[in-house]
Design brief:
Helix content is 40%, strand content 17%. The protein has 166 residues and is α/β, with parallel strands linked by helices. Helix 1 (20-29) links the parallel strand 1 and strand 2. The radius of gyration is 16 Å and the shape is globular. The protein binds 4'-phosphopantetheine. 4'-phosphopantetheine is lined by residues 12-14, 41, 45-46, 79-80, 108, 111-112.
Length: 166
């Protein structure tokens, strides 16, 4: 790794919506990376269907990280490795909460390694208070009227409330 080139990392995901767990991972990654590009994957590029439109997810992320100049948020279509190349990134950031995450993450990391030779995935471990947290659980709890204010930041909370207002 060259010392005079900034280390650009990409943190890809669905972020539907961004949780405090994602926020924690993003901030931890900046202890190592100089710049972080958060890449919101278009639905066509992944298996799940979502709650928020991609533009809304990007908007929420931008609001959440508005104060951090080292973080940029963009959406992407197609392969992650192509997105990384276009961003000049040498590292992909992913969070590992529990052993249950491991197999899926390992598969993706190794496939990406095959697709792009100089590709590295760096795993970050969230604070223990977020180890159970997932965007899908947040969506479910919010939909059923539960309080998710401990798990998401204000811009997300407002949109969840608006979405599930009874
Ligand atoms: O947070 P998620 O939903 O688990 O993120 C999955 C994501 C977006 C990182 C993954 O689906 C992805 O990289 N999609 C882009 C398409 C791609 O490159 N697929 C091959 C991955 S091995």
């Amino acid at each position: 790794m060259s010392v005079d080139r900034p280390l650009i990392a990409v943190y890809p995901g669905s972020f539907d919506p961004v949780t405090r767990g994602h926020e924690d991972i993003a901030r931890r990654s900046l202890r190592i990376a100089d710049e972080l590009v958060i890449g919101v994957a278009h639905s066509a590029t992944q298996r799940k269907s979502g709650l928020f439109e991609i533009e809304e997810r990007v908007a929420m992320l931008r609001e959440v990280f508005a104060a951090d100049e080292r973080i940029r948020v963009v959406s992407f279509e197609g392969l992650l490795v192509d997105f990384c190349r276009a961003q000049g990134a040498s590292v992909v950031v992913r969070g590992l909460r529990a052993v249950s995450d491991f197999e899926y993450e390992l598969q993706m990391a190794q496939m990406n390694q095959e697709l792009l030779g100089d590709f590295e995935t760096a795993f970050f471990v969230p604070d223990v208070q977020y180890s159970f947290l997932s965007a899908s659980l947040v969506r479910e709890v919010a939909k059923l009227g539960g309080d998710v204010s401990a798990f998401v930041s204000e811009p997300v909370l407002g949109r969840l409330r608006a979405r599930f207002q009874r």
